[in-house]
Automatic annotation (TrEMBL):
Coiled coil: none annotated. It comes from Filifactor villosus. PANTHER family: COBALT TRANSPORT PROTEIN CBIM, PTHR43627. Pfam families: CbiM. The keyword 4Fe-4S does not apply. It is a multi-pass membrane protein. It is found in: Cell membrane. Its main location: membrane. The lineage of its organism: Bacteria, Bacillati, Bacillota, Clostridia, Peptostreptococcales. It comes from the Bacteria. The chain crosses the membrane at residues 36-57, 69-89, 101-127, 134-153. Keywords: Cell membrane, Cobalamin biosynthesis, Cobalt, Cobalt transport, Ion transport, Membrane, Signal, Transmembrane, Transmembrane helix, Transport. This is Energy-coupling factor ABC transporter permease. Signal peptide: none annotated.
Length: 177
């Protein structure tokens, strides 16, 4: 790829990141914050992705059982990374999620399952989020972010793989919370 085309792609990506910012002041939606109706709506919105994810994971493990360890490692990576609280400019905290890596390796559907498992553990053991808001948090962290990461990676990997991985992880984080 020539230099002019690379510069154009880089300028377009920078423009996309800075012209469409997403502001976040919290880690997860806390327990009891959402109305029960919205809890049900978000759970219903997340459910198809999780069910498709379970089917994809089953298919992946039947075809290549040796990927079980890598899948578990991605889940552990998501858990550890998303358990970190980092100070934010707004005075709140934020955190990386790590779902971009799983989306690149396995696709967005299996990542939805990994994200759901991580969110259940965080709600029960770390008091991040809650069980009633699990659907909304799942959609934010485990559906929307991985879909963005996967789409960005697939569209940029032919241009430059390193740039594709970086932009997928970066934009996944920007659009997750």
């Amino acid at each position: 790829m020539n230099i002019k085309k690379r510069k154009a792609v880089l300028i377009a990506l920078v423009y996309m990141v800075f012209m469409f910012p997403v502001y976040s002041n919290a880690m997860h939606i806390m327990e009891g914050f959402l109305d029960p109706l919205w809890c049900a709506v978000w759970a219903a919105a997340s459910l198809p992705f999780v069910l498709i994810g379970f089917n994809k994971i089953s298919k992946i493990l039947k075809e290549t059982p040796e990927k079980k360890l890598l899948l578990a490692l991605c889940g552990a990576f998501i858990f550890v990374l998303s358990a970190l609280k980092l100070p934010s400019v707004t005075g709140s905290t934020s955190h990386p999620t790590g779902t971009g890596l799983a989306a690149i390796l396995f696709g967005p559907a299996p990542t939805a399952v990994l994200g759901l498992i991580v969110l259940v553990f965080q709600a029960l053991f770390l008091a991040h989020g809650g069980l009633s808001t699990l659907g909304a948090n799942t959609f934010s962290m485990a559906v929307a972010g991985p879909l963005v990461a996967y789409a960005v990676f697939k569209s940029l990997k032919k241009v430059n793989v390193k740039l594709a991985v970086f932009m997928a992880a970066f934009l996944e984080r920007v659009y997750t919370n």
